[in-house]
Amino acid sequence: MDGYEVSNSLSGAVVHGNVIQGGNVTVQLQDSLRTPHQVRPSRDFFVNRERELATLVAAIGRVEERRPRIVAFTGLGGVGKTELIAHFVSRHGSLFPGGDLYADLAAYRHLGGVDLSEVLAGFLREFGVADVPGTLPERAARFRTITAERRVLVFLDNVEHAAEVRGLLPAGGLVVVAGRRRLPGLRLDGAEVLQLDPLSPAAGVELVRCWLGPGRGTDQEVAELVGFCDGLPLALNAMGYQLLDGELEIDQALAELSDPAHRLVSLDNEEGGIDRMLDPVVRRLSPHAKALYHLVGVNPGPFVSAELAEAAGIDRASEGLRELRSAHLLDDVVDDGPGRRFRAHDLVRLHARGCARELPERLDLLARTVGYFRGRAALADTLVLGDRFRLQERSGEGLPGFTDKKSALGWLRAERADLREVVRAAAEQGWHGEVWRLCESLWALYHSDKNYGDWIETHRLGVESAQWDNRPDAVIRMRNQLARAHYELKEYPLAVEQVAMASEILPLVDEPRLSGVLYETDGLLCLADGRPERAVERFVLAREANEGDPHGEVVQDYNIAQALIAAGRAAEAIGVLDGAAATAERTDDEPMLMRLPLVRARAYRGLGDLESAVRCAEECVRRAAELGQLAKEREAHRLLLSLAEELGDATLAARSRAWLGEPEA
Predict the structure, then answer these.
(1) Which one, out of 239, 284, 436, 548, has a CA that is 20 to 30 A from the CA of 557?
(2) By the 8 A CB rule, do 553 and 388 touch?
């Protein structure tokens, strides 16, 4: 909740957000936003780069209030850009008391662009903001508000265009950018843009001697090793793992690297150069680590975990992860996601994909990977949204479950990039049943977090896959979920088009609840179009289609009540809500028990009973907080703020403003 607590009693005092009031005393507490530390720890050995470090230190001194300072480093993959920033933060992180943030934009890049809105949502969650707004402008504004009072460092990795940086700038502090492409456009924003070159021969020798020590290999041999690795720290560290492990002597390494069969090309072709350098490393991996490396190459998304590896049939997965991490082939993911996850440098992923391309078992390994993500997403969806109508059979048996709704939603958020890429990969393979089933489960994530770009892309694939799978019921479900994305974006003609195309094939299915979901979406569109009486009719039809499904009945009663309120029939809405609440209590329908009080609050407001409206809205806040349903919690606070202004209740207004992160009126 953006670092603030809901109003509570405390020994005669009242707590409102971060203010305690009692008698004639008011105490202002420091807000409880977290201090994020997302830049990964620096490795043990680091040499040279004094010019670049001096540039960063000098930039700190030129940071201006309410304006960020930008420093950009460009250079080849594997040249050490990320390690440079990690080392800088390890030495000077105390100069950023507001914390440090990290985003690998490659994980957010799809369809030719970066989902800046989701990057900002991740930053806000790292600060502890529970009520992440739903739109890009709102998220950017909240991010600037938070960083206006905190000196932060923001590290943006794998940047390709200056516009990607401009959309993620904080209000102040230091922004460090890393990318392979030259970024001259950033100079228009006052940025210093430096090219990071490979290590010089002397610096490369110094790095090797740091971990190899003085007793092994001559200086000439070490210098040759640096030359073969083109001065790239990524390659040197990978070779160093073999040398330190005792599996390889330096003269053997030089013989392998000088073999024409492994001398592809040099820095003119990064992929070829990395092949030459990493092939010997991978050949010496243990069988379980090599199997895990193949999983890195097969997995469509950027992250791997022991849980995924075990589900994919990799033996001794934890040992394999430790070995790959020791060999500098994997790095820890530092974020607030559940469990321990790892990512490979993008050049390492390219190499891993090349190694896995000709595997006889590649498709089986990919199928197990897709099955893992589909099963876990289904388990998360079931826990987050309860007993809602689903087409797919129960799945996820044998996979680890989740402790509660928040952990399930947290996993969906953390694995969002993997889930999107898995949908793509399954569609490319023609595994159509996997695609639409995974999309059906992703409703739990997309409807909560409003990941509109992913939502629309995956569901377009879902529609196509359901058609190929000859499942008209799934086509209707996919089109309806796609229509809801367009509806929330206020792209009403596109939503209407999807509903119309789904309605055309309704005669092909026997499940009445499918007509119900279309009536529901049509009713929402009627409300948006200012036709509440027509909306009532559509929601009544939706309820009839859900007869016998308690959850479906309650959902449609909820919608009918909203339409009745919009039509000026608030008293009738109260009666409908009474029946819905009784059914929800009887069936322990927690998601609807959270939503119903919000509509009841609006009904009481329509009847002029503002005190009852406040009481119901506060019940929605409490239940939404317990379930981690941030969108509804935010919606309830906005209603409370409006009610407080009508009542002239400054305390109530201040509390909701504090939660929403809005300035005092």
Answers:
(1) 436
(2) no
Strand-strand pairing, 153-157 and 174-179: parallel
The type of residue at 362 is R
Burial of 588 (0-12, 13-18, 19+ CB in 10 A): exposed
pLDDT digits (tens, 9 = 90+) for 171-222: 989 999 998 888 888 888 888 888 888 887 888 888 787 777 776 777 788 8
The CB density around residue 208, as the number of other CB atoms within 10 Å, is: 28
Of 599, 591, 664, 596, residue with least CA distance to 629:
591
pLDDT at 264: 33
Residue with tokens 């009072």: 149
Please choose, from the candidates 488, 481, 397, the residue with its C-alpha nearest in 3D space to the C-alpha of residue 441. Answer: 481
The letter for the amino acid at 191 is A
CA 231 to chain centre: 34
How many C-beta atoms surround the C-beta of residue 64 within 10 A? 9
Tokens of 31: 């807000």
Residue with tokens 């639409």: 436
User: Phi then psi for 209, rounded to 5 degrees?
Assistant: -65, -25
The string of DSSP letters for 93-137 reads: GGG-TT-EEEEEGGGGEETTEE-HHHHHHHHHHHTT-SS--SSHH
Helix, coil or strand: residue 509: coil
**Cα angle 580, 584, 585; round to 5:** 120
Residue type at position 372: Y
b/e sequence 33-62, b meaning 16+ C-beta within 10 Å: beebbbbbebeebbbbbeebbeebeebbee
pLDDT in tens, 106-134: 888 877 788 899 899 889 988 988 778 87
pLDDT (0 to 100) of residue 566: 95
Q: What number of other Cβ atoms are within 10 A of residue 532's Cβ?
A: 19
Rounded Cα–Cα distance for residues 12 and 2 (Å): 25
Assigned token pair, 575: 């009666």
Judge contact between 554 and 542, C-beta under 8 A.
Answer: no
